[in-house]
Sequence to fold (205 residues):
Amino acid sequence: MNKLSMNGLYALTEWITRFAYVNILWIGFSLLGLVFFGISPATVAMFTIIRKWIMGESDIPVFKTFWHTYKKEFLRGNGVGIVIALLAYIIFIDLNYIKLDTMIQIPLYLIIFAIIMTLLYIFPVYVHYNVTFLQLFKNSFFIMMVNPVSSIMMLIGFVALFFVMRFLPALSIFFGGSLSAGIIMSSCYLAFQKIEKKRQKAEAA
Fold:
């Protein structure tokens, strides 16, 4: 095996280890907050780490950064988590208990799909932009609406991950959260870059 192959194998092994480590931290810190109060700040911390990796900051102290973000964003992260939980509950009720005419169901399903897609943008927008609580949800919706390519990439990534985890369910313990976050963050980051380029062109005009 040549040196190039060895370097590639080493890099792959390193990234596999990093994603497994972040996933374990995410699970551990979610449990630290008794899941309900821990999962949102832990998710913010996980997205913060993965965003930095995508932006080329691969040598950050993972545990220190995770713990610092978890503490700093604990209250605000839980506020976001409560809103997401309420929206998820409303969607659950709509899908399981409300029986409507077919003509009403179609737009309802479209609205539910738009809400779900918006929620997938919440944590990437949270860690990438310094915005208020209300702007977080508004910006997530508008970024989702004007970037269908990123949304499609996200869905394709989820489908691929679903089939992998279905055939190898044990992997979900080590990679379920972190790989999902990686798919979401990388797709959203492309949208963020596109928005930034448009902004720069508008300023230069």
In short: The chain is about 85% helix and 0% strand.
